[in-house]
Specification:
- The structure is a single chain.
- The chain is of the alpha+beta class.
- It has one domain: Transposase Inhibitor Protein From Tn5, Chain A, domain 1 (Alpha-Beta Complex).
- The strands form two sheets. Strands 1, 2, 3, 4, 5, 6, 9, 10 and 11 form a nine-stranded mixed beta sheet that branches.
- Helix 1 packs across helix 9 and helix 4 runs parallel beside helix 9.
- The chain is elongated and about 65 Å long.
């Protein structure tokens, strides 16, 4: 990992230390109570600094962790916000409660291999702005420019848009997608293609300009452009999408996603990236010590919170 002390200011370091050592409510006031030598106004100014947060995530924290192969996972998450005046807040669909909620929604691109869950980038969805599919395409293009060569790109049915599938196939990247039952396959909807529980075939999906191998298991359907893949391995590869769910759970429960009370989009953007930084630092240090993320977090909770921002560099070097 790079020498982060050259670009991370003392105030920013204390913000990260607060996220690393505790999982309490992460408002600037709460973090200032944890970090006694930093005022909440100082921490608030961190969130309004003009910082290339996304580029810094790649350059300082994750570039050295990504290798050839692995899986790229596109997914999104949402949470409620109890305010009517904040930016980037609107009615968004929440899969956890099965209905729209007034809150925020984020699209995340994750690289995973083995136990590693490495966030590569995120985008906040805003009403009236680009669609979630367009945001996902932007993240994928960014990953390709950075030289990633994943074994497969995985997503649920929301990101099984023909535009994404055609783009990935044109790059020579393999993908796997959940497909909706009403998707047109060979001129018929998938739910009427096979009368039995199991089925598989190669054919054409509407809007997709290359052959797709589709597998059915009960009411679930998967599609891939890897036409040589055995049926059993289709489901095996898709199971590697699960780390995205665990990543969102960690970010929300441990690293403050959804707990920032700032109303401005700029401040939310900064806070969410600082949560990603903390997640990567925690993973690196935990794995270097042979611990799980949760066991390592528990060991931090019983320690007093360091009041010296230079501790963050020692934390990074230990990783």
């Amino acid at each position: 990992m790079h020498n982060i002390s050259t670009v991370i200011t003392p105030a920013m370091a204390m913000y990260l230390i607060g996220l690393l050592y505790r999982n309490t409510r992460t408002s600037c006031v709460s973090l200032a109570l944890l970090c006694a030598h930093v005022s909440h106004d100082t921490l608030r100014r961190v969130l309004y600094q003009k910082v290339p947060w996304s580029r810094r995530l790649w350059n300082l924290f994750v570039q050295g962790l990504v290798s050839t192969g692995g899986y790229l996972v596109i997914d999104d998450t949402s949470w409620e916000r109890f305010t009517r005046v904040a930016e980037a807040v609107s009615w968004v669909w929440s899969s956890s409660v099965g209905k729209p909620v007034w809150g925020m929604q984020v699209v995340l691109l994750l690289w995973t291999k083995g136990k590693w869950k490495v966030p590569l980038g995120m985008r906040i969805w805003r009403k009236g702005g680009p669609s979630k599919v367009a945001l996902a395409i932007g993240l994928l293009r960014q990953a390709r420019r950075r030289g990633l060569q994943p074994a497969y790109v995985l997503s649920d049915s929301w990101y099984a848009a023909a535009e994404i599938m055609n783009l990935l196939d044109g790059w020579g990247w393999h993908y796997e997608r959940r497909l909706k039952r009403n998707r047109k396959f060979g001129g018929h909807s998938l739910r009427t293609t096979w009368p039995h529980r199991y089925g598989h075939a190669q054919g054409e999906l509407r809007g997709v300009d290359h052959p797709v191998f589709v597998v059915k298991d009960g009411r679930r359907y998967w599609g891939t452009n890897d036409l040589t893949l055995p049926v059993r391995e289709v489901k095996t590869h898709y199971s590697h999408r699960q780390p995205s769910e665990e990543t969102f759970r960690l970010l929300k429960q441990e690293f403050g996603w959804g707990n920032c009370s700032c109303q401005k989009h700029q401040a939310q953007w900064a806070h969410l990236h600082l949560g990603l930084y903390a997640l990567v630092l925690t993973q690196q240090t935990a794995f270097a010590r042979g611990q799980t993320i949760y066991a390592f977090r528990q060991s931090l909770f019983v320690q007093s919170i360091p009041q010296n921002p230079l501790v963050l560099q020692e934390f990074a070097q230990a990783a």
